[in-house]
Amino acid sequence: MEVGGTDHFLASGPGAPAALAATDDSGGARADAAEALLAGELAVVVVDALRGGLLISWVNPAFARITGYTLTAARRRGKRLISPEYAGGEVLGQLSDRVRVGAPFSMTLPIVRADGHDIAVPVTITPMLDPDGSLRRVVVVQREGVEPFAVPPVDLEYHSRHALEIVARVSDLIAEVEDSEVLEAIAKLLTRRLFAWCGFMVDHGVLSLIESINSHPTDRTHRASRGRTTSDEEDPVSLLITGHVMRRVRLDLGAAHVPGSLSAQVVDLVRPQLALHPRALQEVIVLPLLGRNRTLGLMAALPHDQTMEAGGEPGTVLELVARRVGLALDNAQLYRSEHVMAETLQRAMLPEQDQIDGLDVWTYYAPSSEHAQVGGDWYDVVHLNKDVVATVIGDVVGHDVEAAATMGQLRSVVRAFAAELVDPGTVLSRVDRITAGMRFPRPASLVYATLTRVVDPKGSWTLRYSRAGHLPALLVRAGEVTDLDGAGGRLIGFGGQERETASADVCPGDVLVFYTDGLVERRDRPVQDGVAALRKICAAASAPDAAGIGEELLMRLADAPEDDIAIVVIRVPFPKGHPAANVAGPRRRRWRLSLDTASIGTARRAAARACEAWGYPRTSETELVVSELVANAVMHGRGSILLTLMDTGDGLRIEVEDGNPVPPTPLEVHPARVGGYGMQIVARLADWGWRPSGAGKVVWARPRTGREGGGNETR
User: Of 106, 125, 356, 520, whose CB is crowded by the most CB atoms within 10 A?
Assistant: First the structure.
């Protein structure tokens, strides 16, 4: 009833002035009412909110009679006044949630009396807030008589709502949190109130705990290919994985399990958590992480003695969370597979670099890291005959499989005409006509050039080229840079008339740089400024070989590419006997590889060629280390792989970079593991370590020059 209504009632009828006068002593009336309440049969407790937490500041005599605690004893017991036998953790969580709202509410508290008996106390709890909204104190008043406690105090409605909030929050975490941290965040959410510990496992030869949703498991659905055993058919966790049905398995952490079985592996991973959580139960709940058509891993939860079992809510929460994590793992693998497929398609269309007598050639390609790891940039360097070399660099608009497919078709057309015709203008004119009939879905730009050997003792070449809407190549001579901007024309397919051919002489020591706009263009830097920076770097480049110049361009310009990059650097070396011919260049080579098993052999052969060219004696050891590092990146990496070999003067340094930030881990010998010992092989042959790099990591190794021992370090 409102105050106004009360005043009206008291002031009406005969004798109203006297009655109204009787209420003038409102302060005294409130004091009498408070004294009667505080001295009555109902318990009252006042709890102050301090910076360090909550402190019971006052209790009335009824509280002492009902519970058996004085104020000092109640302070000493603190949160342990709430009975742990009746989901004390849940009650405290409910209290925290409702007090934060700031409005009065009612509930039943499970109180442990001083004599050890549990009683149910119905109370009304009133939070008192400061003007700024912060909690000042809480007043707890008993509503009615107490009874011995028989059922848990947390009502099913609150617990169900709490469970739904957890599941909804898990969905939000999957959408919001970085892939490398999302599983850790979900585990923390579940262990905050429901469980002592929670973790996720996938099969990497043996089960291992994971934190990244991008972990790539071994498919145990088809274990028949590896040979099923009787223990597999009887092991409950193995059946959990092969069954592809959502259900729960409880494992006794104190029981003996078949060595090497999945159940034994789960127990081995979970048992150390018992020492960290003394109140945890001696069992673990295991659920499958179900993808669309296979089981991708396991979820394990360690309950404690306060875990709620009312209505089966914790188990239901686990099942809902496991389903969401399983689908997230499946989506991450599908996304990864699409990237690998697209990049493999594009790399299959890029050429192996030819070894060209009389020319020093360096090529480089990297897809955009912001897109689908695939695009339309490409290059080609090919012998037309023993005295003519053709070079093409181009860019198809887009960053998808369609752009890569268009690039592949266009590259084949250019190669076909280049094999028959030498004149670049004629080649591009023919390409215009045939692409118009093929109706390519994407526009494209390119530069096509030929280098023809000149018969003279100087070792010169004649460059002839034609451009179709592409940025001019650069000719670098003795610190001066010339734009090869002749024979310009429209994009491929839009020529409309015969294309022209321009020419230039290329002498020993000269460098040609062909590139796509991904090298020079950024959101905060227009193409013109990027080209000006490229010209400046080329003019100042001092490396005596094409690889050194290319590496300098990448180091200075390609630190944060926003588009695909393709580069071809061609240097005409000085003839033998010339003073500059014996100047040693920087011994550094770099290869961009796809996440494909074929990259392992490519990397091994590339390392062998580099060691042979540099006269490095330990070729076989280097090949093995490179092979294992690249294999590790192929199995567990993300994006593309960058392999770098450097001669540091005191040995060889190998670096393998990929987009997965999780560091490599040498695996211990396990009876159930087949393979997975690559890093142990690397550790036997080299000193190794790793460092973060952008969104991923770099794993490096230095093969040892003798039999000296060595550990590993992180830099």
Answer: 520
Structure tokens, 302:
């360690």
The rounded distance, in Å, linking the Cα atoms of 46 and 40 is: 16
The number of residues making up the chain comes to 715
The number of helix segments (H) and strand segments (E) in the chain equals 20, 26
Q: Cα separation of 410 and 21, whole Å? A: 102
Rounded Cα–Cα distance for residues 219 and 120 (Å): 52
What pLDDT is attached to residue 14?
41
Q: How many CA atoms lie within 13 A of 639 on its CB side?
A: 19
Looking up tokens 């006509």, which residue turns up?
A: 433
Put the strands of the sheet holding 502-506 in their side by side order.
376-385, 388-396, 444-453, 461-468, 502-506
**686 vs 266, 662, 706, CA distance in Å?**
33, 21, 10
Element housing 376 (H / E): strand 376-385
Residue showing tokens 């909030």: 165
Question: In this structure, what token pair is assigned to residue 69?
Answer: 């605690």
Query: What one-character DSSP code corresponds to residue 463?
Result: E
Which tokens sit at 146? 């107490």
Two structure tokens written together for 26: 């409102």
**For residues 232 and 692, what is the distance between their CA atoms, to the nearest angstrom?**
39
Assess contact for 627 and 703: CB atoms under 8 A: no
Pick from 447, 512, 502, 452: nearest CA to 477: 512
Two tokens at 62? 């009824």
Task: Give tens-digit pLDDT for 1-23.
Answer: 333 333 333 333 444 444 444 44
As beta bridge partners, residue 620 has none
Domain boundaries, given as residue ranges, for the chain: 1-38, 40-151, 158-339, 353-586, 587-715
φ, ψ at 460 (rounded to 5°): -85, 165
- Calculate the alpha carbon distances from 260 to 202, 217, 238, 266 in Å: 15, 18, 11, 10
DSSP E strands in 97-255: the ranges are: 105-112, 118-129, 135-142, 147-148, 197-203, 207-210, 249-252
- Spatial distance between the Cα atoms of 294 and 241, rounded to a whole number of angstroms: 8
Contact 599, 640 (CB under 8 A): no
**Residue with tokens 């994590």, as numbered in its chain:** 325
Using DSSP bridges, classify how beta strands 283-290 and 295-302 pair: parallel, antiparallel or unpaired.
antiparallel
Whether the Cβ atoms of residue 438 and residue 409 lie closer than 8 Å to each other: yes
The average confidence (pLDDT) of the chain is: 78
The two tokens of residue 674 are: 């087949």
Domain 158-339 and domain 587-715 have a common topology = no
What local confidence, expressed as pLDDT, does residue 307 receive?
Answer: 57
Q: Which residue type, as a one-letter code, is found at position 714?
A: T
Instruction: Indicate the burial class of 189 (C-beta count within 10 angstroms; 0-12, 13-18, 19 or more).
Output: middle
pLDDT of the residue at 104: 87
Distance CA 355, CA 693 (A): 32
Rounded to 5, what percent of the chain is helix, strand, coil? 40, 25, 35
* DSSP letter (8 states) at residue 224: G
What single-letter DSSP state applies at residue 286?
Answer: E
Q: Which CATH architecture describes the domain 587-715?
A: 2-Layer Sandwich (3.30)
H/E stretch holding 314: helix 313-349
Which of 243, 240, 245 is CA-nearest to residue 207? 240
pTM recorded for the entire structure: 0.53
Alpha-carbon distance of 160 to 437, in angstroms, equals 65
| CATH topology (fold) of 158-339 | Beta-Lactamase (3.30.450)
Cβ–Cβ under 8 Å, residues 331 and 339: no
What stretches in the chain show pLDDT beneath 50? 1-23, 87, 151-156, 219-230, 308-312, 371-372, 672-675, 707-715
Nearest to 364 by CA among 77, 510, 662, 566: 566
pLDDT at 510 (0 to 100): 93
> Is the CATH code 3.90.1300.10 the one for domain 353-586?
no
- Report yes or no: 407 and 435 within 8 Å, Cβ to Cβ: no
